[in-house]
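thought: fold this chain, then report.
action: predict
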Amino acid sequence: MRFVQQPSGWREFALFSALCCISSLVDGQVVAQVTDKDLIKALEATWEAQRSEIVTACIRYRSVSSGSSGVQPFTPQQVREIVEPLAEQPDDLKSVVLKLHRSERRKQLAVLEVPWSIKEFYAEDLKTREDWHATSGTNTQVFDGEQVVITRPANGQVDLHAAGQSRLARTKIGEFRFIPKIHGGREVVDGRDGQIVLRTTPRGKANRHLIEELVIDEATALVKRKSIHDDKGQIKDEILQYGFVTHPGGIVFPTIIVKTKYRDGSLDHLVICMIEDARFNGDLPADVFAVSVPAGTNVWDRRRDRNDPVFVKTGTEEPDIVEYVNSTTGVSAAAHRNHMRWLLVVISVCLLFAILFLARCRRKSAAKI
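observation:
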């Protein structure tokens, strides 16, 4: 009997896959096959290792997003055929983007030297920073572990939000490399040409009629395609990942990420992201999560009350706007949390007294009866 140990990371997964292929024949004798269940466990162990292998990241990329009014009503297969060559020919990026768009949106993109602006993303554990370089200046969004800082240089404005209160989406490392979550219902439905196909029903009552299909690269355990099918078999959502590159430390990362949504089989929403440069687990600049602003910047501190912000105007250039606002107003993210804790305590005490009062009133009414 041959025993194949479950791999602890993607580096062992290639060896695991090879052992799966030869496990049926040893010394000319047929032995036990590695089961689909073993294979899925190995994949899930690899995904967990991949999810935790990046501590710091610096990614330079371009992205474009268009809704139904801007994109051509292509089928999923047509979209794949158009974008797949980018893995080998990234210089064709602009022509590929133009093919996917309607004439009016195409005109807007065609006049630019590149179809969209350059963005830079930094991450360290939960902290993130994203700089979006545009003609009007560099827009920045920072989450420093305590608050979200958003700059709008065109308006000379900065907004401070408490963690979890900002309605704006925050880019995370998972946006650049899709890794499946652990799901107990997956099954292997195919395995050939260096690929493994898994299928399952997404969790949640609202998803009972949906089918999730994952196409896995057998050598790295990374997802090449994730498709969500409706009860009619049509694709609703799809993620495509191309051009896998092995970075120092053995981290494998895609170069092209395409996210699509479909309505009645036709393209309805499109996001294309192309990574130009990526560095992982290196030292980041000491002030990367601090936001500097020029003199005369209008700052709206919404950490305590999003609808009733505190206004501050800088008189000089400030290297760290959060420290400046905290020292000027005496309000910090920690102070906000303490304020919220005391508010919850007061509310809880009031509710307790209200419950006791109502219970006492009911006892008195019952005694009178």
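thought: worth noting. Residues 56-179+222-280 form a domain with the outer membrane lipoprotein receptor (LolB), chain A fold (CATH 2.50.20).
final: tokens above.
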